[in-house]
Amino acid sequence: MRIPFLSLFMSSPFDGLQEHAEKVKECAWAFQQAVECHVEENCKSFEDLRQEVIRLEREADTIKRRIRGHLPKGTMMPVDKFQLFMYLREQDAVLDAVEDVLDWISYRVEPGIPAELSKDFFLLVDATIDPIEELSKMVAEARKYFDSFSDKQREVVKEIIRTLRRQEHEADKIEHMLKQKIFNMEMDPVTVFHMIRLTEIIGSVADHAENAGDMMRAMIAK
Amino acid sequence: MSTEYIILIAGFVFGFYMAWNIGANDVANSMASSVGAKAITVRQAVVIASILNLVGAAFIGSHVTDTIRKGIVSNEILNDPHIAFVGALAALLSAALWVSFATWKSMPISTTHSIVGAMIGFGIIAGGFKAIQWGKLTSVILSWIISPALSIILSFIMFSIIKRLIISRNDSFDRALKLSPFFVGISIFIVVLSFLFKTPLGNTLSIGTPMAVLIAIIIAALIGYIAKFFLKRVKRNISGDNGEGIFRYIQVGTACYVALAQGANDVANAIAPLAVIYFFVQTGTVGDQVPVPFFLLLFGGVGIALGIMMAGRRVMETLGTKITHLSNSRGFCVEFAAATTVLIASKLGLPVSTTHAAVGGVLGVGMARGMEALNLRLVYEIIFYWLLTLPAAAFTCMAIYKILQFILQRM
Is pLDDT above 70 for B238? Predict the structure, then answer.
């Protein structure tokens, strides 16, 4: 039965946003494992992990399309529709970047990462995992803010956004350091190119997480 | 048995059918927020809605009756008792049919607009276009815009107040408790005033306006503080002391408030035409103003209550599962705005739709950024069916009027 009054209420896009953020978070683990596997010798499970990320990315894509498809013209929300879409785009870009990293690795699995750089790569990956995991927390807290509109809660969200910025900055520093090291090594140019590009894409994961934070900042603006 | 009595019996049957439909159709609007916000269960909603619709219909209803009848169709036609008589029956039947059809097809229509549409149809067929007092009609239509607007404004203000003073604060539980006499009192104030103005009860007491306001203030303050006394015992919920726990209990009160207002307002839609027939059978004339006897209001109230009991349950079960994310403070704002609008408007003699008042209440909260997602397409749909209801009910009424006339000539 369809009750007229009921059709005023629709499923909240924040549900979808949260679900999407959870997918991003799920991906983080597989991403970390995959890159670490590649850095170490004798990697067997890389392809499996990559497939796992691809699967999660596809699921997240479905959620993204569902959110976009179910916000028709004339939807009233506490935030601007386009701000929400921009946010979603950035959150999705995090996942895309994660997938790009693994794709890029898969194009040239051999010769792998030289042992003297492995520690730095671990550092870089760890630095990008933190912001990824922060996203789902941010969405949950922002939702609480839209429920209560309390300044305290707003401050909680803003603090997460600040954390994201800081983490991105950390990741940036590691990225710079790593690039410098790579260029100063005696290697064949193709390997250098592959590793430089790899460093950049891993770094971009944190960039997109930060962008998502900035979009959230716009959404919670008074 | 004479024709008059047959028509009277038919009037009672159709009036009851209309009242039943109103109960079945409109209950969703009044109880949706409470059931959706889990303040009351479906069973409680059915009980509250049926009892208080009945009370509201019997004790507060009556004033709208003459406005609908007298305002739109000019007196000359109504001076011919026979025409008025058949017209009232046709209007009643056509409005009831249209409401049933709309319920079946799930169209967001208003029972109030259906009866107004049917009255217009009757006026046109009985006396031509000149029989309709278009000036009066404009004011009626204006009131349809004013009442949702009033509801939007009230709920917007109410939610903004609650947002600023309660839920955004750190000590929102204490603040909710502290302000609870205000929220309870303001609803009580309007209910008491409605009782005192233009009801049989109020007329017997014959209290002047300043006195009535004073009495209402005293009763409101008293009940407000009694409510606070009981609310103090509400346990703070463990997951953080937001004020929602307080509003959850206040919402039980506003659910009653809405049911009362709805009964008071909607009973006229079923009973006004019946009152015309009844008055004619009793006296053989139709006056400018037809008094509505208490037992007719009660009869309408029983019809609405039965409609709620028989069909309302299924409606409310759907509501409970579909409306999520409606917190108690928001539900309170929606109901407060809807009920206040309906009571004030119906006391002013404006035919107001409870459906539109409820939707207005939700939109007001949404405008204050209080809803995660609202589908405004319903608003366009409402406007569409609003424009459709008048001609649909009017044409049905014309056809039924002709048929009835034909039958009666043969008898």
Answer: no
Flag if A151 and B168 touch (Cβ within 8 Å).
yes
CB A105 within 8 A of CB A38: yes
Least confident of A155-159, A160-164, B213-217, B399-403: B213-217
- Residue A123 placed within a domain: yes
The residue in chain A having the minimum alpha-carbon distance to the alpha carbon of residue B29 is A5
Question: What DSSP string describes A84-128?
Answer: HHHHHHHHHHHHHHHHHHHHHHHHT-SS---HHHHHHHHHHHHHH
Q: Amino acid identity, residue B203? A: N
**Into how many domains does chain B fold?**
1
Question: Which of B10, B241, B22 minimizes the C-alpha distance to B114?
Answer: B22
Host domain of residue B250: 3-410
The pLDDT of residue B67 is 44
A179 part of a folded domain: yes
A1 in any annotated domain: no
Low-confidence ranges of chain A (pLDDT < 50): 1
CA distances from B268 to A23, A128, B62, B346, B409 (A): 55, 67, 7, 10, 29
Q: Provide the shortest C-alpha distance from residue A147 to chain B (in Å).
A: 7
Highest mean pLDDT among A172-181, B138-147, B257-266, B307-316: A172-181
